[in-house]
Specification:
With about 190 residues, the chain is α/β, with parallel strands linked by helices. Helix content is about 35%, strand content about 10%. A six-stranded mixed β-sheet has the order 4-3-2-1-5-6. Helix 4 crosses helix 6.
Length: about 190
């Protein structure tokens, strides 16, 4: 399954023979035939909190969408205890898919906080960094990669080099060093110093 986050990079063309999971997209955009769209409560404007996510898909039965919504909600509540806040929709989906023994190709999901406001983000809309514990999510992602790397292709998390964009060029970018530290910490026994 291809999982496409909302991070930097090009959105790949949908493949006609492979499901593609996308997150928190406007309801104005039509679903492609193999797309599975997962939205959090706020984006989906769900009236209650019995489920934390909405799953839409042309290729899945309604009962399967509801079951996935339930599994995502249960996974988010488990991850919340480790992160101290609700996890991102993307990390929740990846953990859920791994528990379902699926193989994943993950794109545009570096789990990196930014304080730079993209030009297309309205001034009153908060940055994702206001809601997520990105360093905690990176730690959990590297633990997943260490345990299930044979089923995870996640170049944004495993690449040794980090692209310098026009926004970060000329600034001291601590991300490569933090990336290396967190990767080592994720593989270390938590009971060692």
């Amino acid at each position: 399954i291809c999982i496409v986050g909302n991070g930097p990079g090009q959105t790949p063309e949908p493949e006609h023979d492979r499901p593609c999971v996308r997150f928190n997209l406007s309801g104005d955009k039509p679903l492609s035939p193999m797309e599975i769209r997962v939205s959090n409560l706020r984006v989906a404007r769900l009236p209650h909190e019995s489920v934390l996510f909405q799953v839409l898909s042309q290729g899945m039965r309604d009962a399967d969408c509801e079951r996935l919504q339930y599994l995502l909600t249960q996974q988010a509540l488990k991850l919340k205890t480790e992160l101290g806040c609700l996890p991102s929709t993307g990390l929740t989906t990846i953990h859920t898919c791994i528990e379902l023994s699926l193989s994943l190709h993950i794109l545009r999901m570096p789990l990196r906080a930014t304080l730079l406001r993209p030009p297309d983000l309205t001034p009153r809309k908060p940055l994702a960094a206001a809601f997520h514990n990105w360093l905690g999510e990176q730690r959990l992602a590297w633990q997943l990669i260490a345990a299930h790397g044979d089923r995870l292709r996640w170049l944004d998390m495993t690449a040794k080099t980090h692209e310098t964009t026009g926004q970060t060029r000329g600034h001291l970018d601590p991300y490569p060093r933090i990336h290396d530290w967190m990767q080592v910490a994720a593989l270390r026994d938590p009971n060692t110093v």
